[in-house]
Amino acid sequence: MMSAENKHIGKKKKELVLILVILAVSALLYAGTRIIFSKPPMRVEISVDGVVIETLDLNKDTEFTVEGWNGGTNHIVIKDGTVHVTEASCPDKVCVNQGTIRRTGEAIICLPNRMIARITGGE
User: Beta-strand (E) ranges in 30-122?
Assistant: First the structure.
């Protein structure tokens, strides 16, 4: 029979192994996201209802009004390599309040207008 002390030591070893496994998985997930988002941002793809309607260069400052679903609109501004929505016809304005995006993989989404502005990296 195992003594109470041996059971306690065995339990601590299992807890330590579990903590190490969690840390290893976390490190792998972190490294994976760093690799995925490592491409330099090059352009922003604007889509409405799942269809890409415009691809704009992030190196060129510009403004663009997107005609969204059911007559809705979103005003998109690209300035200094960042993208943000300054005006929207939707009632909640979550897309406007989201602020600016600048990294590959980030997106601004307006559900009522079915508009997505997603930053993509280089080829």
Answer: 41-48, 51-57, 62-67, 73-79, 82-88, 107-110, 115-121
User: Whole-angstrom Cα distance, residue 19 to residue 46?
Assistant: 42
18-44 residue pLDDT tens: 999 999 999 999 988 777 766 677 899
Tokens 């330590």 sit at which residue? Answer: 16
Contacts of 71 (CB under 8 A, 6+ apart): 89
Tokens of 54: 């415009």
- How far apart CA 20 and CA 62 sit, in angstroms, is 49
Burial 12-45 (b: 16+ CB within 10 A, else e): eeeeeeeeeeeeeeeeeeeeeeeeeeeeebbbbe
Q: Where are the alpha helices (DSSP H) in 37-117?
A: 94-97
